[in-house]
Amino acid sequence: MSTTTAVTPLTTADAESLVTAAYRAAEAAGVPVSVTVLDAGGHLLAFRRDDRAVLISGETSTRKAYTALQLNAPTADLVEAVQPGALFHTLPTALDRPLLFIAGGVPVHRDGRLIGAIGVGGGAPEQDHTFATTAAAAVV
Fold first, then answer.
1. Which of 4, 32, 74, 137 could share a disulfide with 50, CB 3.0–4.6 Å?
2. pTM summary value
3. Where does residue 25 rank: exposed (0-12), middle (13-18), buried (19+ CB within 10 A)?
4. Which phi and psi angles does 135 have, rounded to 5°?
């Protein structure tokens, strides 16, 4: 008989730490962004949009987080998979879900288990990815 070890879920405090870490990384780079944190069930735990960030960044940060959560992979790693002829080419239109295959979404793990995701929008995709991974690495 195997035993299951409980993993502490993503807390509101964790979510605030993720937002703050991503926001600070973006601020240091001079990039106004929106940051979204979702729990393992896809529910919003935290959100922040810089006053100077483009309005659509709120939507893109949320969709990036949702995509990273649902596929348990950084969205930066999935961009090629939705290109014509690739494995997930039809996935963005096949589902009635807010998936977005642009870098900036990163799953968050604790003790090897998926506990949520962070999405950053507003900068170039590579910048958003860097801000999100920086934040995710800061939460244990």
1. 32
2. 0.91
3. buried
4. -65, -45
